[in-house]
Amino acid sequence: MSKKKSTKCVHSGGITDDKFFGNITPIYPSITYDYLNSDAYPRYFNTPNQLSVSKKIAELEGTEDALVFGSGLAAVATSMFSFVSSGDHVILQKSLYGGTINLVNTEFKKFNISYDYIDVANLKELNSVLRPNTKIIYIESPSNPLLSITDIKSISNFSKKNNLISIIDNTFSSPINQNPANLGIDLIIHSATKYLGGHSDILAGTVCGSNELISIIKKSGLNFGSNISEYISWLLERSIKTLSVRVLKQNDNALKIANFLNNHNMINKVYYPGLSSHDKHDIAKKQMTGGFGGMVSFELKNSISSDEFVKSLQVIQPTMSLAGVESTITSPAKTSHKKMDPKERDEIGITKNLLRFSVGIEDVDDLINDLSNALKLNG
After folding, report:
1. Could you give the CA distance from residue 139 to residue 146 in angstroms, rounded to a whole number?
2. How buried is 197 (Cβ within 10 angstroms: 0-12 exposed, 13-18 middle, 19+ buried)?
3. 256 is a catalytic site residue
């Protein structure tokens, strides 16, 4: 029977409790197993709770297999280093999560791996940087923190035409809003710390793809050793059961808040793909089938101090991470993109007055009132 996403969230994966007949997945905390009867070992990605949550995530993304890691960046690093070696080349979207940028800029040069950050929407630019040694094209949509949208289908077409491995960071969308495998992308990465975990208490990452590609990543992954524990695997599988209801509520709240901010005279600009004013709104409508996500970024007028504005908020909390059930806010220039050159940050729009708002599941009127009061106090 074909199941819809909200049903998959609850029922996909999981382990049947044949001994005590409990109706939820039991935890198997052992890190060592009888080698005469089992080859299970945590670093091999094959212990019971690791396999359980991996199956759930793969079914949600519509892929054959998935792996779980100790963080989202571990998933990014292990996936990319599984397919490149010295002398290879990688194409990357210009607007990416700061941790991914720092990984590429600091680690690739050690291994003589070259790379280009480009506007991947520009086919002429794509073709101009393509080389015989190009192995990967890496994108993020919606991107962190500017919520830029990439035409996923066009990237998968370009990738297949040129025999590249396409990778997308799908964290900001979550599997509820977007399934890149349906659009031809090879590997889908999530920081499971964010929407998959959803309660600000889990550090994890995941990559989804075909059996063939995941088996290659698994071979590298067991050498890198950035695995997830059984308890965190169990917590993540538990958390995904509510993924659909959480994300759908966050979608609704975020759209209302984006419209409120977009009409406020103390806001310079709002970044949200659900707004008709977003330059890629039509593309977002085609490929984001569940909603436009719970992330809204906005730039305050220059006359307002972003720090003072954040201090004035009473409900929305200042934190570095995102996608919990509680609403949080951060300055990307001071957190996720702090290591970037300030001039480069400003050039791509990550200014000192840009704030990234992770919309939670609270009553939307309370969130709007909180923003409104903080704007009045600092206006």
Report:
1. 14
2. buried
3. no
169 is catalytic: yes
Taking a C-beta distance cutoff of 8 angstroms, is the pair 186, 212 a contact? no
Does the annotation count 97 as an active-site position? yes
* pTM for the predicted model, two decimal places: 0.96
CA dist., res. 198 & res. 325, Å (int):
6
pLDDT value at residue 1: 65
What domains are defined for the chain?
5-240 (3.40.640.10), 243-378 (3.90.1150.10)
Determine the pLDDT at residue 98.
86
The answer to whether the CB of 67 falls within 8 A of the CB of 187 is no
Low-confidence ranges of the chain (pLDDT < 70): 1
Among 43, 153, 256, 352, which one carries the catalytic annotation? 43
pLDDT, residue 342, reads 83
What's the chain's Rg over C-alpha atoms? Answer: 21
Neighbouring residues of 204: CB distance < 8 A, sequence distance ≥ 6:
68, 69, 70, 71, 72, 191, 192, 193, 196, 197, 228, 232, 236
Tell me the sheet residues that pair with 317: 328
Max CA distance (Å), the chain: 70
Q: Is 246 a catalytic residue?
A: no
- Active-site residue, selected from the candidate residues 169, 271, 272, 370: 169
Catalytic residue among 5, 8, 65, 97: 97
